[in-house]
């Protein structure tokens, strides 16, 4: 971003309002509703577009019957192994390890098919 230009100001405003790099999550639609409740932080396993496992967790509590859930991508404190799914209003996003556009989640031993749009349904929850 160039300093002091209208474009750099708009890019900074977008990151301020829509976040970037922090608390990345996917908003997904399950093809069948949850058969039981899940709690915030419960583990959710999926795969990226290359078939590599991607670990996530429930962003909130979801009651049985819920069909749209937010899945927070699991992160670590180590930069070498930090999650490769940085989204939000970043100028350049990194979606290597974001969930594939469609697939199957394993949630507490149960499998749920899901769909979402990797480009528009991955978001960053932490804004300024």
Overview of the molecule:
- A six-stranded antiparallel barrel has the order 1-4-3-2-5-6.
- The mean pLDDT is 80.
- The protein contains one helix and seven strands.
- The protein is globular, with a radius of gyration of 16 Å.
- It has one helix at residues 6-18, and strands at residues 24-30, 43-47, 53-58, 68-73, 102-107, 110-115, 122-124.
- The chain has one domain (6-124).
Quaternary assembly: single chain
Number of strands: 7
End-to-end Cα distance, whole Å, is 18 Å
Secondary-structure element order, as H and E? HEEEEEEE
Q: Helix- and strand-based class?
A: mainly beta
The rough form would be described as globular
The number of domains is 1
Count of discrete alpha- or pi-helical segments spanning 4 or more residues? 1
Order of strands, widest sheet: 1-4-3-2-5-6
| Regions with little confidence, pLDDT below 50 for 5+ residues | none
Beta-strand content = 25-35%
The major β-sheet equals: 6 strands, antiparallel, barrel
Rounded Rg = 16 Å
Helix content: 10-25%
pLDDT averaged residue by residue? 80
List its traits.
single chain; mainly beta; 1 helix; globular
Outline of this structure?
With 128 residues, this protein is mainly beta. Helices cover 10% and strands 30% of the residues.
